[in-house]
């Protein structure tokens, strides 16, 4: 599959964009005309630079408002087009995107449009140029790819074909199966874009909210399969208008874009081997659970105190590194004081258990995810480590056959056996933060690279703005990672680790006896809980005396409490009763307000 | 008019919100239940604090999903309600907002809903509470205020009335004239919110994009007049859910909110004196033009050099201040080196000419706009100065009768007479920057306080993201102020002053001879202009040799050039031919890319 990307997807100057695309591994680019116009490189210089970078110039775009016009306007449009063909000759580009007329069409006739495209094809032939005619979703008369194809058939000119763009087809709800009726040799170009489900006018949606494949809600795997079945073998290109990508560094965005094409190819090959052939990427594999969470700080003593209060046991010091291990039930927390000069406690790593680490590692690596170096001594277990878009490292560990603890635990010495009766089970969820720039890429990483399910987007009010939240999780719920996007200003980055319990009140009771200071929950909250859920007074008093919060839905109940923040982390203990599957979202504003009060009191 | 505001409009803790509202001059507040629940103040403490601040607690809100339910659910809902009535008694609030049922209604019957509200009314009466029933725009059965009113009539209970919310009525396109058929004594509450025109689902629109009155597109003056004609004399309250206000300092937002109610009252009084009585605010008055632009810097020599190259004349040094005046045609630029230690040149003030300065000053002052102190010596002309939401100060100057220069020019000495044949006329526009936090307030300031017209929102691509742009201008176009909102990251704040010319090529020619270095325009731009507008080669060469840009629309042509940036300002000279009324928006990306190249070259 030849990969390509439109320069409009990225920020920066045309030179910067070209370098970023080459670096990320794209085979070619689409030259977006305004990028050319604003560049001080001549077309010849751009061509030479692309050659040096090993990039093909696949498409010149867009040419607007051509067909369905009066004869007089047609003449002017042909002159406009010829000037572009001359620039294309200088650039060495042989295909131009012609979008269906939005502004100047006055003749709603396939025959007229076809005849006009035929004249354009004649003109283009003289320059060796091919016309890729595309139906814009908001074209005045031509807004359906099937109609564009009919017009191309009527034009019946070797230099006139069609361009398919997933956004224009799927945003209108048009059935992409009809693509298979198109002659693959007449599909002159293919553009892919994903998008979130939004109900807004299709033009704004298109111009500001497109996403790379796999980051939105379109079924692009099925779409690509339809196109491949036509025999199309041209570039698979990305055209993604997005306000965020326009602002973020072009290098990062290009890597993200390239990975999205690879994961799409993988998904398409798995689901539609008849169309795409077998995947070249190793199989997806669901992790068996969260192995450990790593917290890094110059001084981890406050974290250790909290873990002890919660019922964790100290399991030992690493043989060779300034790393300590605590555990409770199946939850292991690694405290790392290396490379952490001046750092407050923060979440620095997440270990996932895999039945077949090697295949998982090969898959992640094949999908362009950068590896992280990890110094190792002889006799230590190898834990492959990768960078994540949101910050902490991802480690892959072998799930021990028949349960029990993974082998690397034996590298820790001078510790104690796990405490009995901790009432703690395993990691319930790890609540992480991604910035607004990296959020979609993060969700894509867990979704398309690791195969997690993506939940809906929620919003929670904090005193400093709305927190957007989205959960990625394995299908069986063993691994759950809610990701928060904080408001632009004010909010301190805080992540937290939630542990399951079969008796959250007992855990809270023990923690209090051991001196833990809980996150204070206001009395008004308990008045509200009593009223909202019609609970009896004694039960509410019990919750209140333990500072335990409550939620209920149609399927069950949820009890949970929070520790205070230690640097940028805190802990939560949760008890799920019945089929409750949420995270106590209604309680999150209460937590955020309480944390904010503590910050204000501390003058933070 | 008693003013009120829902606490959900503001950021921060409930205490912070209350203080901000009192400070801004609100008479009362609506207590948003989640703010209460998350607060560690008891209801009694909140009540006492409100009393001390001089705020009334006008409304408890919201109570959801009450009516149209089965008998069993009704019982539970009545228990839920009673718990709230108890909290309200502690708070001393006598009115509760009951929103039409969204989630649990199963009975679509006005009679059933009315009977259920009547039972709620009986229960409420025992606590001295009034029920204000409101149709949510997305209510399951009740989504129209006329239906909510019908149900209230059927309920026929002294403690059951209706609440009107402009958003829920106008967002659905319902005719607000029907409000006049409601008995004013049965309107228990009034909430106002404006909103931009957006085509998105009404729930998202409501939850994230509401605006204060005058900042959006709703006709709230007419809406308020309908309500006042019913005899309603309760609070006029703001309920504005907005992602920006949730993040910005509550003090600033509260002042902005309060001003929006005052300007709305003024507008309503002017347009509908039968309903609102006469306005208490002095009349609106259109300015006669831009008097001067002030640029401040520690060292203004680079700006003076550019002004001289453009054809400006040095008009003198101020008698007592480190301020110098340059002019060309009717354009005066004041260079201020006072209080500017370490500052790069930046736009610091804007003077507007008024026929009646005193009335204009009284109006602006009456609308809560903060005055700026301005030291004055004896014999100097008084120029009232105000703070603007976007930064630079606004000065008001007396428009000289019969044209000519304003009196304050005589305070400058040792200058020269204006140069003849400058080909410069006056200020065409002053292009300003507002932050995303202050943009809506800025547009409201020029619109509702000063009476400018608000243009549509445009977007321009820069190498670092999209620049949002909106023009405010006087009806006759004498004062035009385009406001840009820069992308969140990277873009340097740059404002510019555009001057009219009757011969932009001559001005460019002279400037070049005097040594000006223009903003370089790439050759590709001229190839594109030639093709796009079908211009002849010699004309394009002429433009190119002067680095002059070109635009054309159905009404005329536009020629313009830019100087390089000097600190945070630059100059533009424009020539409007025929009826061209735009700003060369298609050329803005070319300018932004060229500026970005210069920045990169300079290592900025």
> What oligomeric state do these chains adopt?
homodimer
The two chains with the largest interface, and their residue counts, are: A-B, 57 and 58 residues
Estimate the strand proportion of chain A. 25-35%
CATH architectural name of the largest domain in chain A: Roll
Unreliable stretches of chain A (pLDDT < 50, length at least 5) are: none
CATH topology of the largest domain in chain A: 2,3-Dihydroxybiphenyl 1,2-Dioxygenase, domain 1
Helix content of chain A: 25-40%
In CATH terms, the superfamily of the largest domain in chain A is 2,3-Dihydroxybiphenyl 1,2-Dioxygenase, domain 1
Characterize the largest beta sheet of chain A: strand count, sense, and whether it forms a barrel: 8 strands, parallel, barrel
The spatial strand order of the largest sheet of chain A comes to 1-2-3-4-5-6-7-8
Basic shape of chain A: elongated
Domain count of chain A: 2
Rg from alpha-carbon coordinates of chain A: 28 Å
Number of strands of chain A: 24
Average pLDDT rating of chain A: 93
* Top CATH class of the largest domain in chain A: Alpha Beta
From the N-terminal CA to the C-terminal CA of chain A, the straight-line distance is 52 Å
Number of helices of chain A: 18
Helix/strand-derived category of chain A reads: alpha/beta
